[in-house]
User: What shape does this take?
Amino acid sequence: MRSRLSSHAFICIGAWLVLMLVNNAIEPLMSYYLALVAMYATAMFGMVILVGLSGQVSLGNGAIMAVGAYVFALSYQHWNAVISMVLAGMAGVVFGLLLGIVGARLRGPYLAGLTLAFAVGIPAIANRFPSILGGEDGLKVPAPNTSIAEVIQAPTYDESSLDQFLTDPSSAGVAPDPTSTVQTFDTSPLDPGSFALEHWQASVAIAVACIVGFVALNLVRGRQGLAWRAVRDDPVAASVVGISPATTKVTAFVVSSLFAALAGGVFAQILSFVGPGAFGLKLSLALLVGVVLGGRTSLVGALIGAVIVVWLPELVGSLGNGWNDQVSNNVPNLVYGLLVVAVVVFAPSGITGLVTQLRSFRQR
Amino acid sequence: MNQFLDFSLGGIANGAVIALMALALVLVWRSSRVVNFAQVGQAMFTTFISLWIYEVSGSWLLALLIAICAGAILGLVVHLLVMKPVRRADASGAIIATFGVLIALQAAAGMIWGGDPKAFVPPVANSGLEFAGRIWPVSWYDLLIFAVTSVLVLALSYVFTRTSFGLAMRASALNPEVARISGVRVSRMLILGWAMAGSVGAIAGVLIAPSATLSPNSFDLLLVFAFTAAVIGGLDSLVGAVAFGVGTGLVLSLVTGYSDASNAPIVSLVLLVVILLMKPDGFFSQSKSRVV
Assistant: This one.
């Protein structure tokens, strides 16, 4: 048990070191994408636990991310980032518990529908309390370094960027703000060691993803992971051997909500802004699409899913180049939708499942 | 009191459309035990087709007929290409696949017709009728919605309760094994269920389009409301879907009238949570046991 703990720690610290070295070596724009991948991975670790291991299809995690992001933004007005992240995580646990208590009693389609209503309803609450939550305009999350903060402009958020959100996560809220990168380049032109705002954001996102990944690894490969699988596959048999299906299902909700809320806190820092539009149904769907493509039951699958959700729009965006915007903007979503269907039908365990199958095929 | 009456009357037309969409969800659920979250995507797609026909031909009736056919075909395609091949044991997979279809359909519609909201001009006046010395929040178009919805619901309940085809359909929904032994072609019933649901959803889409604008995402909220209605009604029951569809429309109209439209999804969520906590199987559900 102890050796497993230390090997997990070794994996996560190793990953952290490598990613931090990479982060320091790349341009700010790439760093921005790295931050997004780490943020999505954090949330998708939770989705693997909830959807893959405990078998509860939930669309609520995007809404939980909104909760985490708003709590972070509110808290960050008074306290530092670490305290704000802790508070965001606690809010995630509370909401996960509430959602779990309701959700764990429900079968598949009921749960999916309830969480769908949750995903649509929660961001709308921001408009109910405009004085605290900033309404449609959202809340600003100031950048940590004032000299950098000066060049960050308040992002504008409009409906069209909302529509493109799943298409291109970078277009939600702020695209990698050209002014900020240009200005940072001005102070230290093309110095790989320069620490732009994007580098800082990425290092926060990477740190959170590695810590969450460590916790997730221990849970998934430990007793709790077995319990989740047991309840998913046969609740009656699980309760016979002393695993309470209800508690186990709620635990999955709580853990995945904790991860989602932390990812939300990171997202708030990446966007420098929290608004209801960034956390709509599309975010929840993006999380689901990511884990399904990567592999529903595998943490590595979550990583692959995070990379896909961030990179696929860039990759297939070039496919629609010859066409007008109307077509090319929708190519990534069409590919997502068709890929999800194809994966569910032909390879239910996603890319990681395919790789495992291929490997066992070769060994034979 | 007058205000209350106005808000209630105004909600019934919307409620009728929610009821139709809930009906479509129930039809699919009854035939294959899947909640088709792509239903509003299919309806959106066929409504775009219908709008195109309407603009070209100028005949609303023709546009509605085309929508019904397109809805049936699309329902069939989704069933045969997507839902049927999904492995039976993979319950989560079936749900996820319907969301995949939804994303793909919305993207395809965006490609073909663009993301800008389009106006669907109603075939008859959509302004309040004047009657007994005041203007009522009911238009000729609302009356048309009531008429179409009532005819549809009556026809469906006649088919389901009075014909041998309806009996076969109910049998294969309740117990596919026994139905198969008794000579019912269950797979054919599945296909018909999906096609019928597609048509009903398409009608709902065409009917609701003039009250809102038409864009690839414009039916997202309708999905939430219809799901709420279908679940409260028990997912199994046509009567439940219609009753609670209209009921949901009423409640949402009152909420919108007395407070603000942006409260509607929150109220829908609260309704859903409370009902699911009290009666996890809805009010009109027939099947009781679930785990053996």
Observations:
- The longest helix of chain A spans residues 245-271.
- The first strand of chain A starts at residue 139 and ends at 140.
- Chain A touches chain B through 53 residues (CB under 8 Å).
- Residues 2-279 of chain A form one domain.
